Amino acid sequence: VAVETRALVSWMEKIPFALGGNLQGGELVVTFPFDRTRSVTALREATPTADDHVFRWLAFSYASTHRLMTDASRRVCHTDDFAKEDGTINGASWHTAAGSMNDFSYLHTNCFELSMYVGCDKFPHETELPEEWENNRESLLVFMEQ
After folding, report:
1. Taking every annotated instance into account, which residue ranges of this chain make up the domain Peptidase M14 (predicted)?
2. N or C, which end of the chain is more exposed by having fewer CB within 10 Å?
3. What separation, in Å, do the N-terminal and C-terminal C-alpha atoms of the chain show?
4. Residue 33 · residue 49 · CB < 8 Å
5. What are phi and psi of 131, to 5 degrees?
6. What is the distance between the alpha carbons of residues 146 and 144, in angstroms, rounded to a whole number?
7. What is the mean pLDDT of residues 42-46?
8. What does pLDDT average to over the chain?
């Protein structure tokens, strides 16, 4: 396990977070647990938690207030059009990921963590950052209010 991962796990075990989000780029969607399929042969399958309705609400609260995520007229980042799914998806329904922070947080610390993919460009140019901030500012505030 990487040093920074071990440090994050230790921090989460000491402080009882209730809500968490990790920001990523390269897509416009909010994913929620579980991120790993139950079947080892399945590449994509819905794997809801017992708290699926809460995760869906949290994901929707972010995506619906983002300036682009649920806009049906926006361009699709790559091949998946998540606007049709209200800008949210169960992680394993999109792509399976073993050992994700979302799954760890839920299973081992009782923290409801989501992954927010906040823009199509994984590495936006510095001149684009003010607009990216405006696209996500209200969503971040609404998410924290939850």
Report:
1. 1-146
2. N
3. 31
4. yes
5. -70, -40
6. 5
7. 87
8. 92
